[in-house]
Write a structure and sequence with these properties.
single chain; mainly alpha; two-stranded antiparallel ribbon; 10 helices; elongated
Length: 253
């Protein structure tokens, strides 16, 4: 029992040292340390570009579908297709059709990121109370102002929930970048002969840390975007001011 734990601790210690200090890999190349930093930058650039384009495409479409109360078939179909298609299959398909390159792999990740954002945006818009929308329309607001001032602020928690899900998925899927010629943190994972076991474990730990950071950070943004009334969750408000006890009934003389 002690021996496996000691071996595991030694492996993680070697992986941590790989993340901090440059070393000579099994094939003589300099790996780790500052070289790993370059992989992190490329990994984040690829992930951020894919999520950014997915946001620019999915949020306006979800807002329009949700505001018009139509297109549920489109949203559900996109969500189901997004769940059914594996990320590795999508990357290989784009690589086979378009070839290698940053843009081609990014487009594959964009298609992976769109379904959660589109579905959550559409659902958030549909869950807005119709009475609130009717009241805004009765005040003379145009359709665009209703979307911007009423529906979107109420739907923001779900919108950010979709962005959070897509960001974590894309960060994980970006490890497939080396398949299409983009050297990300997936390079040590698929080339252990160049990086060694320490490089593979170190890169996997960094990817996990980036995914956790995205999850925690965007969860905080999602909570901040949630209206105060929704956070209360229906709890009964405590009365304000001084408590005044009820008077006892006086007996009749």
């Amino acid at each position: 029992m002690i021996a496996p734990l000691a071996t595991t601790g030694r492996d993680f210690g070697d992986a941590f040292d790989f993340m901090l200090h440059e070393r000579t890999g099994p094939r003589g190349a300099q790996v780790g340390g500052s070289q790993l930093l370059g992989l992190i930058v490329t990994h984040l650039e690829l992930s951020a570009a894919a999520v950014g384009i997915a946001i620019a495409v999915a949020i306006p479409l979800g807002l329009w579908l949700g505001h018009t109360r139509r297109g549920s078939f489109v949203a559900v179909t996109v969500a189901n297709v997004g769940r059914a298609v594996p990320s590795i299959g999508l990357v290989f398909l784009f690589f086979a059709i378009l070839g290698a390159g940053f843009v081609n792999i990014m487009l594959a990740l964009v298609l992976l990121a769109i379904p959660p954002i589109l579905t959550n945006t559409y659902t958030g818009m549909r869950e807005v109370d119709p009475g609130v929308v009717d009241a805004a329309r009765g005040m003379g607001m145009t359709g665009r102002r209703i979307v911007r001032k009423v529906e979107l602020p109420l739907a923001l928690p779900l919108v950010f929930g979709g962005i959070r899900i897509s960001s974590v998925s894309v960060i994980a899927a970006a490890t497939l970048g080396p398949v299409g010629g983009v050297v990300t943190l997936g390079d040590p994972l698929i080339n252990p002969s160049c990086y060694g076991d320490a490089g593979r474990l170190g890169a996997a730990s960094v990817v996990a840390a980036l995914a956790v950071a995205a999850e925690v950070g965007l969860s905080a943004v999602q909570r901040a975007a949630t209206p105060r009334g929704s956070k209360v969750g229906g709890r009964r408000a405590r009365p304000q001011g001084r408590f005044i006890p009820k008077r006892r009934a006086q007996p009749a003389p």
